[in-house]
Write a structure and sequence with these properties.
The protein has one domain: Cyclophilin-like (Cyclophilin, Beta Barrel). The chain has two helices and eleven strands. It has helices at about 85-95, 190-195; strands at about 65-70, 75-80, 105, 110, 115, 130-135, 145-150, 160, 165, 180-185, 215-220. It has a nine-stranded antiparallel sheet. Helices cover about 10% and strands about 20% of the residues. By secondary structure, the protein is mainly beta.
């Protein structure tokens, strides 16, 4: 069964400090972006519609499971925190199995703050078609390398769909409202590389200077 449908998915995720970024159409006269070493020039993916049903049973991945995120700027790894976030990691693993993340761009890149992706629509308003709720531990801190799920400001703490963010700065300074996914366990240089490609002039909107695309995510 295809994960693509014509039915509109709910408008979820990414508001507040982890905010959506609108697509900025340029006038075609922009100077070419100099890519950091290790990045490939790629086209922005076309918006897609994903409308999955939430599985009746979501099984968290075994402790120590690592998600290898292959991007147009290289690969980084996320060690999933299935012990503290069984629902969140189970849902993420399901979305990986459904190839939801393949060919999706990082739609929001804020240097020294976060890189954010996982939206099939590519504009910060899309999701997978369902959500899970799992408030993070009260002592959760979003420091360098933390990976968590994005949500709208009006949604309850710990709600997540498909969008996730990686903290690229020393400390994002966020309250413990965002479902914890795990920590970058390898390739943090790739995260820094991607973070260089956010437009400083766009502020917290985080408009990318050039597309950075997730080729695939594999669990191991």
């Amino acid at each position: 069964m295809s994960r693509r449908t014509v039915r509109l998915a709910p408008l979820l995720l990414v508001a507040g400090v982890i905010a959506a970024c609108g697509g900025g159409d340029g006038d075609g006269d922009e100077e070419p972006v100099t890519l950091p070493p290790g990045c490939e020039q790629v086209e922005a993916p076309a918006p897609e519609q994903v409308d999955l049903e939430r599985p009746k049973r979501l099984r968290p991945p075994p402790p120590g499971t690592v998600a290898a995120v292959q991007t147009s700027c290289g690969e980084f790894e996320i060690e999933l925190d299935s012990s503290r976030s069984p629902k969140t990691t189970a849902s993420f693993a399901h979305l990986v199995d459904e190839d939801v993340y393949d060919g999706i761009a990082f739609h929001r890149i804020v240097p020294d703050f976060v890189i954010q992706g996982g939206d099939p629509r590519g504009d910060g308003t899309g999701g997978a078609g369902y959500f899970v709720d799992e408030p993070p531990p009260a002592d959760t801190e979003y420091t360098r390398g933390t990976v968590a799920m994005a949500k709208t400001e009006v949604e309850p703490p710990g709600r997540s769909g498909s969008q996730f963010f990686v903290v690229a700065g020393a400390d994002a300074g966020l309250p413990p409202d965002y479902a914890l996914l795990g920590e970058v366990s390898g390739g943090f240089g790739v995260v820094r590389r991607i973070a260089e490609l956010g437009d400083p002039a766009s502020g917290q909107t985080g408009t990318p200077l050039t597309p950075v695309v997730i080729d695939s995510i594999a669990l191991g």
